[in-house]
């Protein structure tokens, strides 16, 4: 309580300084005059009484000053004085000031950059939403499982049940968790746009109003009779419709269905999912019309909707959580076949959905830790410089202390100076963050349809401010505490000329810490870079150089099967006829992407239920796929055109398997001619075996895989060329337009560009860690150079004496470099020990290399020692060239 | 016992709190009251009174407001706050027990040990 009182009284003084002065004047004058009047009353002459009163009161000005101090009124003046003085000191040493500010700015700036990503992914609430903290996301959870795989979004029937039966939420909305790429037929020309299906109450529950027209109404999403209406994204409306003010009421042809525009979302609103900015929103009940996917709304096994509820006033999250769990049990009783063991969990509605937050936090946390280390190195660097300067300023401190400056005042002075430095560095660091954030965003593969906004908002500013302040205080504390231990008399008598032993010991300690930290970062960087090289050289099992790809989906336009087949046949013919094209084929989706089809295979012709089959991945390919992708056929033959047209589900189909599958089922025997049963397809005849590749991740162990000849409507075209596939992309686009102008290809790119996706994690990590490692090395070398240079300049006299006494240049070199190398070796040993503890966390990101790889550790150690020697050698040369006569005469 | 005593270190605050606990007073009045109660046996530096008053107000133990003095002049009156009352009580207890201990020590006779 007294704390608040003090703060209040202090504020009053700061805000109204003149009132304090007037009050004080009046109060003291009253005292003196009242006293004088009493004296007059006791018989003293008035003039004499006034004089006595003033005399007895004592120094009025001193009393006033003490009163001001008692009220804390002087703090601001003193602070302003310290600031002025601090600025003067910084200007006096422009070189070291610039060095410290630059090093710190790099450290703070990189941390601000990483934090701006943490903010964008984890801290920022969805923009444009009213009271985002009231919203909670509902996830189904398979009881008894752990990890992210146990969590499922909702099916449409589940969503309807939770929406209609809960008592905890004022309303529950749902949206498509994996927004759909939809083809917008723009007067004959197809363009791929991103659409999100949402429940009718989506906008109204979030409190988002249309900037033009209206948002959805409950009657827009009536099951069975939905309105084909869309709300456009603000950016889409600006970029593709020229901000047309009369857009409301017009219609768009999306996936072959005509939709009426009813409104435009407000600028800045991009839904509730991170990195996704839909071009349009449509009612969830049009799913079957727009996706041509019958049964999407009735299926109890298609988990695709993210449900978000807004808590009723007075209901807290645990109560709502208990209720949805109860509802989950009720659904389980009603539908034991599909909802068995499915519980329900609530998470705060964040941009990164609850179950995934752990992964994102771990990744960004690792980055923050890495760049935290860079900041430590920059800080230690700055500290050694400041410490050297503090030693040089011992005399100044002694004089100020002799003139009556208190300890607190001296400490404050040093802290103000270091905070000034780190504050300047913080401003510069923010500029750096503005520049590096877009640079980091550019790392993302072009194929990912994500748009991440990384704003430098108040959270990032606050973080930068706190980091700068903290750095400044930690930085200033050592020299500050040091400066007040100064012994005044000997310094003023010029007795303490050389730096004391303790001071140089502290500097050595800091230097060792810096080298150790640098060692950890360098090892991390080297491991990541080497793993990146490994990953680049991993053979994915197909040609990554001479193939162009494009994804096509005529099925999304509602074409009948015959028309789809006709389209692909004609396209295949036209593409194959292009100059430079040696072959072309189709696959339902490329390996190493995000899509996956899995099944269970058993040997023989009968699907024996209860018998556990081999879990296999399935790819569906057209004839010529293996040749086009450069996958070698080990035995048997490729599919024939007529086999890819045979109806599915019938006995007598054919399949090609990979080597891993052949090994698993028949080990050394020839599988060609044998039969397997794969899910619904019984008695598939094996007609060929191909080489095993990588299908899910580059680091995986061999996975058994079955190729089937029948393809769905959505396919990826693969084209093999003898030359550079980049020159083929335009021709492919033209051919697609020529065959059917309303179809647009998505992800038209070379296979090399496609490979950016599976390589993305390793590439990002490698680049970031590589940059941080190089930065650490540069900073550490500069620091070592500075410390050794300082040591040489302090020991010029000693070196002069040694040389005068007959020491050779070689011995002087040994003395100086030896000192630096000792520090480097100790730092190396400490760093090595820390490395063993820390790099374990990297192991999941590394391909084909152990965290304790001896060659890497050795290489980094040798490199660090070499750099350290170089950093010591330059100042050592200066020491060698000391002229003993000059050095001694200097005294 | 006509000789004036110097104030013990740290006791001025307690005396001020006690003086204003008897009713609101201005600075000069506090001085007079302490001298009156102590029968002029305590010597208080007039100048040291005000920093102490400002400090006590800053800590929230006394509050001030402008009023009119006995001879119709503007003067700043101090009164005890609720927090000040508790503080005074605590300090009084502390002082009494301290005085008892000191007195007991000083009053010890050789045969009592």
Textual characterization of the structure:
In chain A, a hairpin with an 8-residue loop joins strand 1 and strand 2. With 891 residues, chain A is of the alpha+beta class. The mean pLDDT of chain A is 83. In chain A, the strands form four sheets. Chain A has a six-stranded mixed barrel. A six-stranded mixed barrel of chain A has the order 15-16-21-18-20-19. Chain A is built from 29 helices and 23 strands. Chain B is of the alpha+beta class. In chain B, the strands form two sheets. A three-stranded antiparallel β-sheet of chain B has the order 2-5-4. Classes of the chains: A alpha+beta (891), B alpha+beta (113). The interface between A and B is medium-sized, with 30 and 25 residues.
Helix and strand arrangement:
The complex is a heterodimer of chains A (891) and B (113).
Chain A: H1 2-15, H2 17-41, H3 46-57, H4 60-70, H5 75-92, H6 94-123, E1 135-142, E2 151-152, H7 156-165, E3 169-176, E4 180-186, E5 189-198, H8 202-206, E6 212-213, E7 229-232, H9 234-240, E8 251-254, E9 257-264, E10 280-283, H10 287-291, E11 305-311, H11 317-334, H12 336-339, E12 342-348, H13 354-392, H14 394-402, H15 407-441, H16 458-484, H17 488-492, H18 501-537, E13 547-552, H19 561-576, E14 581-587, E15 598-603, E16 614-620, H20 625-629, E17 633-636, H21 641-645, E18 654-658, H22 659-666, E19 675-678, E20 681-690, E21 705-708, E22 715-721, H23 729-739, E23 746-750, H24 751-754, H25 756-794, H26 796-804, H27 809-838, H28 854-880, H29 884-889
Parallel strand pairs in A: 5-10, 7-9, 16-21, 18-20
Antiparallel strand pairs in A: 1-2, 1-11, 1-12, 3-11, 4-5, 4-8, 6-9, 7-10, 8-9, 13-22, 13-23, 14-22, 15-16, 15-19, 17-20, 18-21, 19-20
Chain B: E1 5-6, H1 12-21, E2 25-26, H2 27-37, E3 42-43, H3 46-58, E4 62-68, E5 74-80, H4 82-106
Parallel strand pairs in B: 1-3
Antiparallel strand pairs in B: 2-5, 4-5
């Amino acid at each position: 309580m007294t704390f608040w009182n003090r703060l209040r009284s202090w504020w009053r003084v700061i805000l109204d300084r003149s009132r304090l002065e007037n009050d004080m004047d009046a109060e003291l004058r009253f005292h003196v005059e009242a006293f004088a009047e009493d004296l007059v009353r006791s018989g003293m002459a008035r003039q004499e009484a006034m004089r006595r009163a003033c005399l007895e009161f004592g120094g009025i000005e001193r009393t006033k000053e003490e009163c001001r101090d008692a009220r804390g009124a002087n703090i601001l003046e003193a602070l302003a004085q310290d600031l002025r003085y601090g600025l003067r000191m910084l200007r006096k040493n422009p070189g070291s000031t610039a060095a410290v500010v630059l090093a710190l700015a790099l450290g703070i700036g990189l941390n601000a950059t990483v934090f701006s990503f943490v903010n964008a992914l984890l801290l920022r609430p969805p923009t444009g939403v009213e009271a985002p903290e009231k919203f909670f996301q509902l996830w189904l959870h398979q009881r008894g499982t752990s990890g992210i795989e146990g969590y499922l979004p909702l099916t449409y029937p589940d969503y309807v049940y939770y929406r209609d039966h809960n008592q905890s939420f004022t309303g529950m909305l749902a949206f498509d968790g994996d927004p759909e790429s939809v083809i917008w037929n723009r007067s004959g020309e197809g363009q791929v746009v991103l659409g999100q299906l949402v429940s009718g109450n989506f906008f109204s529950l979030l409190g988002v109003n249309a900037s033009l027209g209206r948002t959805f109404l409950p009657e827009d999403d009536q099951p069975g009779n939905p309105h084909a209406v869309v709300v456009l994204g603000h950016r889409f409306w600006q970029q593709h419709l020229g901000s047309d003010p009369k857009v409301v009421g017009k219609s768009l042809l999306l996936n072959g269905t005509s939709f009426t525009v009813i409104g435009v979302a407000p600028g800045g609103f991009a839904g509730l999912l991170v990195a996704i900015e839909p071009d349009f929103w449509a009612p969830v009940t049009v799913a079957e019309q727009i996706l041509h996917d019958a049964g999407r709304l009735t299926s109890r096994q298609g988990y695709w909707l993210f449900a978000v509820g807004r808590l009723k006033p007075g209901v807290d999250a645990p109560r709502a959580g208990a209720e949805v769990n109860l509802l989950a049990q009720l659904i389980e009783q009603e539908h034991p076949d599909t909802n068995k063991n499915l519980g329900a969990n609530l998470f705060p509605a964040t941009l990164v959905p609850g179950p995934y937050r752990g992964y994102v936090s771990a990744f960004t946390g690792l980055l923050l830790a890495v760049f935290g280390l860079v900041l430590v190195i920059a800080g230690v660097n700055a500290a050694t410089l400041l410490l050297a300067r503090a030693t040089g300023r011992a005399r100044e401190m002694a004089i100020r202390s002799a003139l009556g400056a208190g300890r607190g005042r001296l400490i404050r002075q040093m802290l103000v100076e270091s905070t000034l430095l780190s504050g300047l560095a913080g401003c510069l660091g923010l500029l750096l963050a503005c520049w590096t954030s877009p640079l980091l965003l550019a790392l993302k593969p072009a194929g990912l349809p994500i748009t991440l906004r990384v704003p430098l908002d108040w959270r990032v500013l606050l973080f930068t401010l706190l980091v700068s302040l903290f750095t400044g205080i930690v930085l200033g504390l050592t020299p500050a505490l040091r400066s007040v231990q100064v012994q005044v008399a000997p310094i003023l008598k010029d007795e303490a000329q050389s730096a004391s032993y303790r001071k140089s010991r502290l500097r050595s300690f800091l230097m060792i810490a810096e080298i150790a930290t640098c060692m950890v970062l360098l090892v991390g960087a080297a491991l990541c870079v080497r793993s990146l090289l490994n990953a680049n050289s991993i053979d994915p099992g197909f040609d990554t150089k001479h193939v162009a790809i494009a994804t096509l989906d005529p099925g999304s336009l509602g074409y009948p099967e015959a028309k789809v087949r006709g389209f692909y046949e004609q396209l295949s013919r036209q593409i194959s006829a292009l100059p430079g094209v040696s072959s072309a084929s189709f696959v339902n989706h490329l390996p190493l992407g995000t899509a996956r089809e899995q099944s269970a295979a058993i040997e023989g012709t009968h699907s024996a239920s209860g018998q556990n089959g081999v879990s296999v991945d399935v790819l569906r390919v057209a004839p010529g796929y293996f040749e086009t992708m450069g996958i070698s056929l080990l035995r048997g033959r490729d599919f024939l055109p007529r086999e890819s047209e045979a109806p599915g589900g019938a006995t007598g189909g054919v399949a090609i398997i990979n080597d891993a599958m052949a090994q698993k089922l028949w080990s050394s025997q020839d599988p060609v001619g044998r039969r397997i049963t794969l899910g619904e397809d019984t008695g598939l005849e094996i007609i060929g075996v191909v080489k095993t590749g990588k299908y899910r991740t580059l680091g995986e162990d061999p996975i058994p895989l079955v190729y089937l000849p029948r393809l769905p409507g959505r396919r990826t075209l693969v084209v093999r060329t003898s030359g550079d596939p980049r020159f083929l992309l335009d021709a492919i686009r033209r051919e697609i337009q020529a065959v059917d102008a309303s179809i647009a290809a998505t992800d038209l790119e070379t296979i090399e560009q496609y490979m950016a996706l599976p390589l993305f994690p390793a590439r990002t990590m490698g680049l970031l860690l590589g940059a941080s490692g190089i930065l650490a090395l540069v900073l550490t070398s500069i620091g070592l150079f500075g410390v050794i240079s300082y040591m040489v300049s302090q020991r010029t006299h000693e070196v002069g004496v040694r040389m005068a006494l007959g020491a050779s240049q070689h011995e002087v070199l040994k003395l100086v470099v030896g000192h630096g190398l000792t520090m480097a070796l100790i730092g190396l040993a400490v760093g090595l020990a820390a490395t063993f503890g820390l790099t374990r966390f990297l192991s999941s990101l590394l391909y084909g290399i152990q965290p304790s790889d001896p060659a890497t550790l050795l290489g980094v150690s040798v490199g660090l020692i070499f750099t350290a020697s170089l950093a010591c050698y330059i100042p050592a040369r200066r020491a060698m060239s000391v002229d003993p006569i000059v050095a001694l005469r200097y005294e | 016992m006509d000789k004036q005593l110097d104030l013990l270190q740290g006791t001025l605050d307690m005396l001020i709190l006690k003086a204003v606990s008897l009713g609101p007073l201005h600075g000069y009045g506090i001085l007079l009251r302490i001298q009156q109660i102590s029968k002029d046996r305590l010597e208080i530096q007039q100048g040291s009174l005000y920093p102490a008053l400002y400090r006590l107000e800053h800590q929230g133990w006394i509050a001030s407001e402008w009023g009119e003095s006995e001879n119709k002049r503007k003067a700043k009156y101090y009164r005890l706050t609720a927090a000040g009352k508790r503080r005074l009580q605590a300090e009084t207890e502390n002082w009494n027990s301290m005085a008892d201990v000191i007195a007991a020590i000083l009053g010890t006779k050789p045969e009592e040990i």
